[in-house]
Amino acid sequence: MPLPIVYHPDYVAPLPEGHRFPMSKFRLLYEKLLSDGVVDATQVHVPERSPQEWLELVHTPEYVQAYCEGTLDAKAQRRIGLPWSPALVNRTCVAVGGSILTAKLALQHGLASNTAGGTHHAFPNYGSGFCIFNDLAIAARVLQNLALVKTVLIVDLDVHQGDGTAFIFQDNPDVFTFSMHCEVNFPGTKQQSDLDVPLPQGMEDDAYLQTLASYLPDLLHQFKPDLVLYDAGVDPHLSDRLGKLCLTDTGLFRREMQVLSTCVSAGYAIACVIGGGYADDMQALVYRHSLVHRAAGEVYRQYRL
Predict the structure, then answer these.
(1) pTM score, two decimals?
(2) Cα gap 272→228, rounded to integer Å
(3) pLDDT digit string, tens, across residues 261-281
């Protein structure tokens, strides 16, 4: 069976003209994967919208209801950074469902990837930084609630610290949060992950990959998770307008191969989400987001999963 890929047409929601969040990248990513022969339609799994009770495993009922009904106050909406609409509510809940499905598929097949996800700045009672509901945290809690896993390792390589995820699991010994991020970047106030690795501005490929290699294998050996959730943000790229690190396309692909092969070769199931990416060149951005799926396909074949 080929590598499972998760996509839903509702991953794209319309935003006002001129809004800088690249919502169209989700559809373009899927089309790129198909046109380049990275995936075909037989590999694609379509998620369902996450029910409200799953969202409330992480988020307060008051916040979930206010967001879904469009009654959040203006300040809370500005903190999220995305204009509210019923279409965006649906898109957000479908994307959470996608990460949950990706995690379930990873348990079944050893490796799976989602063409969305990585909303790690969402806290229990508010959203932030283009993140409304924390899909990785919800996926971890849902799988634990269903008794499919006990322990989860969240590997967050987005250029920004996974502050919402760190806060959510700060007192939970069954979920280990690992965030490797640029030290002088959003969020201004960092939370405490189980392991934070702040990186200096301008770090390039080799230094970045060597740093990662000095942590990830030991984490797997010590924590022995039932599942790894991987946020493969591409905003560490040198051309990303919100990044401040200097990875190349080749460096990002090497990172994906390193993370996936390290986990799979040691027998750990891993579910991937695409995380952040904010380059002005949309085609270049879509290609970078495709790298985790290209690497996943290679690793999946290499290890005959």
Answers:
(1) 0.97
(2) 8
(3) 999 999 999 999 999 999 989
